[in-house]
Amino acid sequence: MYVNGEWTAALDGKTFSITNPSTGQMIARAPKGGHQETKLAIEAADHAFKSWSKLTANERAHYLLKLYDLMHEYQDQLAEIISLEMGKPFTEAKGEVAFAASYLQWFAEEGRRIYGETIPASAVNKRLMVIRQPIGVVAAITPWNFPLAMMTRKVGPAMAAGCTSVVKPAGQSPISAIAFGRLVEMAGVPKGVVNIVTGASGPISDEIFENPTVRKISFTGSTEVGKLLVTKSAAQLKRLSLELGGHAPFIVFEDADLEAAATGAVESKFRNTGQTCVCANRIYVQSSVIDKFSELFVEKVKALKVGNSIDPSVQVGPLVSPESLEKVEEHVNDAVSKGARLLYGGQRLKGKLSEGLFYEPTILGEVNSNMLITSEETFGPVAPIIPFETEEEVVRYANSTEYGLAAYFYTENFSRSVRVSEALEFGIIGMNDAVPAVAQAPFGGIKESGMGREGGHQGLDEYLEEKYISMGIK
Ligand code: NAP
């Protein structure tokens, strides 16, 4: 672990193992920290906050840009770690490293624009002003599916705002976080500004929520855990940002460019082997074009190369855990038993790859709303195609979920594009665009997909407090 600029083990020496999902082999052990290690990390962050928060934005930007450069310099090594510990295809993992670094660059620049406000007073002898200050010590709890990017999306704005942080990475992917800690050290970031504690989520998060020094928690993960954290935050009214689960509709209208829509559906569905919060979960296709679209889509999915994630030519890797693989099987079996038609795939990979957690890229036709896959997040490489007749009907279907993270639709009709983007109840809309996330735009969900935004200028607001100062003058 990386605490107060030092590399440390768990106080009792305990560790846990990390398994490569492509091979089933153990690749590393990481320290199993808990309450006490987290407490030390929070103390270090608190101490560092006093001087880090006093630096100028330019000085803080210097460290962020150094980290940005280092991430590019070590792009291949970082991608290798991501790929080995959580199974993201290597070439895609390189993309994640660049994406993760882009947040550091964006927030280095954005930190220079933490503007305040002056307000006209109601009396001649008063002046009113609002300043924005760093919130304090921040805790970041991150998931395994973007082990680097979800971290820089939190640590980047925290550093830029003048906050210090304690990061708790997911149990399946602690090595990427540790590697990031190494870069923090190489960049000469003052000790205690970024601390990384690996280990047991229960005791670590208990300390984070009970320790009054922590003023804000930024969490990315499941809606189930997110709700638990809302309850825990009540005791001290700690500020929370939550990036939670999704159930993205992907709508193809009859006036769409079907070739572009099929390409977009592959990108949106099979990225990270279907394990992203913004992956298409329900592909709605207007009946008049469903045969043509399905044909194009199946053709493209057949061309995807599945295999050991470390192979740079592989496009679809393994699932992250045996439980994830079981959930995928459950969703496919449930849909088929209720009348869905298997258009492609539909089973675990056999032969050479059977040691890993591989499932064939799968397409299901004639899916309906009685099937689990249309309401639960599958988090795997399964694409369900659902027919629809009218725009009004599909908007209703698309919105009929407790989630509200991302939604996509394809059309060449301008008026429809405006109507549908306004009618969809989601935080992110991809209109003829399957990959909308970039550092300079606000990313986040509505409804049970979370609260707060990451990226964009909004991403910095999450780490700042507003202070109103009323000044009497002579
Ligand atoms: P998860 O089980 O909720 O875990 C996420 C993080 O929370 C991990 O670090 C985990 O640690 C920790 N955690 C687990 N139980 C906890 C508890 N009781 N208290 C405090 N922390 C706890 O989610 P996941 O399965 O890793 O990630 C997949 C989910 O994340 C999906 O639902 C996906 O949609 C969502 N996601 C959302 C976004 C977004 O931006 N909206 C981005 C990526 C992923 P351990 O691993 O040590 O248990």
UniProtKB/TrEMBL annotation:
Cell cycle among keywords: no
An example Gene Ontology biological process: gamma-aminobutyric acid catabolic process
InterPro entries, per database record: Ald_DH/histidinol_DH, Ald_DH_C, Ald_DH_CS_CYS, Ald_DH_N, Aldehyde_DH_dom, Aldehyde_DH_Superfamily
Protein family per UniProt: Belongs to the aldehyde dehydrogenase family.
Gene Ontology molecular-function annotations: succinate-semialdehyde dehydrogenase (NAD+) activity
PANTHER family documented for this protein: SUCCINATE-SEMIALDEHYDE DEHYDROGENASE, MITOCHONDRIAL
Keywords on record: Oxidoreductase
Keyword Oxidoreductase attributed: yes
EC identifiers of the protein: 1.2.1.16
Source species, domain of life: Bacteria
Chain ranges of the Aldehyde dehydrogenase domain: 7-468
Protein name: Succinate-semialdehyde dehydrogenase
